[in-house]
């Protein structure tokens, strides 16, 4: 009996549900942060340029600054949340905004590196071209920390740390460098790292949203749920296999 009480006490320390914010407030936060218009659009533009300059000048501090101000995590978390709650209209909005942000980032960073007089690939840039299984773990645990913070009443200061750890903007700008210089190895390596970060942050959002039992926002058939789960499994497998291979080669 005493052992059971002790286990319950220990588990109580790890209880997430006690501090979960109001579900409607969480939904509003996700819906608001997926949009790229007004201030969010300008912040995205500035983050792209700052990250490109930081990579070009090999400045770690500047790159960290770009990570901190980048709003890219909003639509990624939104996609994960909308999949978990089967809110497909919200998912389409999040995907549309995310696609716009990715295309805009690639165009802007490619244009910058095409015009920059410094064409040498610096160490900060090269570090984003060879992702491994360890990058998967960083994205997964960083994403988990982020979604737990977003869902709690006390938001804390977790999100800036998650932004630095998962580093969404630098690999995207590195992919732009690859396009500008015609180096497809850099482009695909960096874009693969960006894909790893995106997929596993979204998967973290799906996992925590389901663990915390966020309410389903739309009526969804059992077949549709099975189809969604099947697609998630396929995506995880396709992303994991190359990263495990590259990690083993280290």
Biggest sheet statistics: none
Q: How many beta-strand runs?
A: 0
Beta-strand share of residues: under 5%
Write down the CATH topology. Answer: Glycerol uptake facilitator protein
The assigned structural class equals mainly alpha
Sum up the overall morphology in one term.
globular
Low-confidence segments: none
Order of helices and strands: HHHHHHHHHHHH
N-end to C-end Cα span: 49 Å
Please indicate the count of domains.
1
Helix content: over 70%
Give Rg in angstroms: 19 Å
CATH class: Mainly Alpha
Which architecture does the CATH hierarchy give at level 2? Up-down Bundle
Secondary structure blueprint with pairings:
Layout: H1 2-13, H2 23-33, H3 39-57, H4 60-69, H5 73-84, H6 88-115, H7 123-126, H8 133-151, H9 158-166, H10 169-181, H11 184-211, H12 222-249
Q: Any overview of this molecule?
A:
With 250 residues, the chain is mainly alpha-helical. The protein has a single domain (21-249), classed as Glycerol uptake facilitator protein. Helices cover 77% and strands 0% of the residues. The chain has helices at 2-13, 23-33, 39-57, 60-69, 73-84, 88-115, 123-126, 133-151, 158-166, 169-181, 184-211, 222-249. Helix 3 runs antiparallel to helix 4 (60-69), helix 4 packs across helix 9 and helix 10 runs antiparallel to helix 11 (184-211). The longest helix is centred in the middle third of the chain and has 28 residues, at 88-115. The chain is globular, with a radius of gyration of 19 Å. The mean pLDDT is 81.
Index terms:
single chain; Glycerol uptake facilitator protein; 12 helices; globular; 250 residues
